[in-house]
Design brief:
The chain is an alpha+beta fold. Helix content is about 35%, strand content about 25%. It is built from 9 helices and 10 strands. It has helices at about 5-15, 20-30, 50-60, 105-115, 140-150, 150-160, 180-185, 250-260, 265-270; strands at about 35-45, 65-70, 75-85, 90-95, 165-170, 200, 205-210, 215-220, 225-230, 230-240. The protein has an 8-stranded mixed beta sheet, with helices on both faces. The longest helix has 15 residues, at about 5-15. The N and C termini lie far apart (about 40 Å). The mean pLDDT is about 95.
């Protein structure tokens, strides 16, 4: 599969979950901007057949390699950043939930979901926009998982798909800073994730980030429909690292707060 086709398929899936992102992108393009994708992020459980090691095989096949490793102890996640080895292509951020750090009941629920998955699922790149690889969970399961991990509840309800796309702020012509872009997004009426401040990171950390709050979309559960936070749009400005090239990595303390863009309480408050 060509890398461009991979990202086109991801974008199509993503904007169905985050119509706001399509709107913001259109507003930027109307101002004459060419929107470049900085990175796409995915979530998974650390259980076969969809654990990080299984999924990343598809990234390697597309020409990506592992860049840096990240650990989020609070949220019980590990992750890798991936960069393309041969062409200018968006970075990829893939995280997995360390299920062994949760309660027995939680592990049982997640284990049951993963036991339903077709083992061949990770044999094609389409795994990254597969959606639900298990039958829809009931609302009680969603709430039980959410009590321990918003990340897990999101994944159980929405399955495998992009969690967010990210605008590469460096490539915008009409915005000198991330702050200017965030002010524009707000002036257009879109709510930002303010957890840890609306602008996360600093030039010293080589990466500044902000994001919208996740859209809220009706999702079909086993026992009825419910509107839940889905996906969001992120904005990233990168600074030059030692050696002159743009910093290619991520900043764990900022990413930790960015994860909260899909929290149910934050989304409600907006
Ligand atoms: Ni991100």
């Amino acid at each position: 599969m060509r890398t461009n086709d991979f990202f086109d398929s991801l974008w199509t899936d993503f904007v169905a979950m985050a119509p706001t992102a399509a709107d913001i992108r259109r507003r930027l393009e109307e101002r004459g901007e060419r929107v470049v994708n900085d990175h796409v992020a995915f979530r998974t459980f650390d259980l076969a057949p969809i654990n990080l090691n299984a999924l990343e095989q598809q990234l390697f096949a597309l020409g990506y390699r592992r860049d840096a490793a990240y650990m989020f102890l609070d949220k019980k996640l590990r992750a890798y950043g991936y960069v393309h080895t041969r062409q200018a292509a968006p970075r990829i951020f893939l995280s997995e939930l360390i299920t062994g750090m949760f309660s027995r009941r939680f592990q049982e629920l997640v284990g049951n979901l993963c036991a339903e998955i077709d083992p061949a699922i990770a044999s094609t790149p389409a795994v990254f926009w597969h959606g639900l690889p298990w039958s829809p969970v009931d609302i009680e399961t969603y709430e039980t998982l959410a009590a321990e991990s918003e990340y897990a509840a999101w994944l159980a309800a929405l399955g495998l798909r992009p969690n967010h796309f990210t605008v590469h702020v460096n490539a915008l012509e009409g915005f000198a800073s991330l702050e200017e872009l965030l002010a524009f997004v707000e002036s257009e009426g879109y709510a930002l994730n303010t957890s840890g401040g609306r602008l996360k990171g600093s030039p010293e950390s080589l990466l500044e980030q902000g994001s919208t709050l996740a859209d809220r979309v009706p999702v079909q559960f086993a026992d009825g429909e419910r509107v839940i936070p889905t996906c969001y749009y992120e904005f990233a400005k990168r600074y030059r690292a030692e050696g002159g090239g743009l910093y290619e990595g991520f900043v764990a303390t900022s990413a930790d707060r960015i994860f909260e863009s899909t929290d149910r309480e934050l989304a409600k408050a907006s």
